[in-house]
């Protein structure tokens, strides 16, 4: 009750940057609790604790978005309102990711292995998807298909649990943070080997490289997942309130799903063509 009462969703919607702080605070509180309570699966438990803290705020937000669909019939205005929600969701994702990445970098390796072991296995699984000698078109198809599965579960979880996609998205934030933290350590070690010791410039270079390496395409992926999660949540709330006969709700949801698919496909193209050109 304490954590969830610190931030008002209606205030945060007007100041979306505050959600970055929300993500950082929720993460820094959840991680030590998870580590000391259930050390062997601390990473997964931390994700659950972050979701539990954020759940009331997101439920109120999604419920309000469904009410906007009923009240207004101008689709552009409705999408603009959803855009504000998307903005603060992205800031929340950024706060969680940065806090987890900093934890990965700063903590001892033995602690990191306990907290981020499952995430490291997930990264290996993702890398296996894109291994082998294949064409760029085939690679886009593989990446898009893999991401499409995540998108489907975001919609399904949101429909069944209202804000269920929050768990998938927070888990993805922890995986991205693990990849960033690992890349940061690798680049820092390379810089230290060249100059003999890690200069401040090396820290900045490693941090910026690891962030943009994954966020160049990852930001679009996360936006796509969040939009799909909002769409699924709106359908869920409409079903509970028996407003599923409102045509405007389905028009709005379909628009968001098409936008989500478009962003996901764009992210796959960027991941195959632009990210390698910039960071390899």
Provide a descriptive summary of the structure in words.
There is one protein chain. By secondary structure, the protein is mostly helical. It has one domain (3-279). 86% of the residues lie in helices and 0% in strands. The chain contains nine helices and no strands. It has helices spanning 9-14, 18-37, 42-71, 75-106, 109-129, 136-161, 165-195, 200-240, 247-279. α3 (42-71) crosses α8, α6 runs antiparallel to α9 (247-279) and α8 runs antiparallel to α9. The longest helix is centred in the C-terminal third of the chain and has 41 residues, at 200-240. The N and C termini lie far apart (46 Å). The model has no long low-confidence stretch (mean pLDDT 80).
List the helices and strands and how they pair.
Blueprint lengths: L8 H6 L3 H20 L4 H30 L3 H32 L2 H21 L6 H26 L3 H31 L4 H41 L6 H33 L1
Main beta sheet strand tally, sense and closure? none
Determine the fraction of residues in helical runs and give it as a percent range. over 70%
Low-confidence stretches: none
Radius of gyration from CA coordinates: 19 Å
Beta-strand percentage range: under 5%
Which structural category fits the helices and strands?
mainly alpha
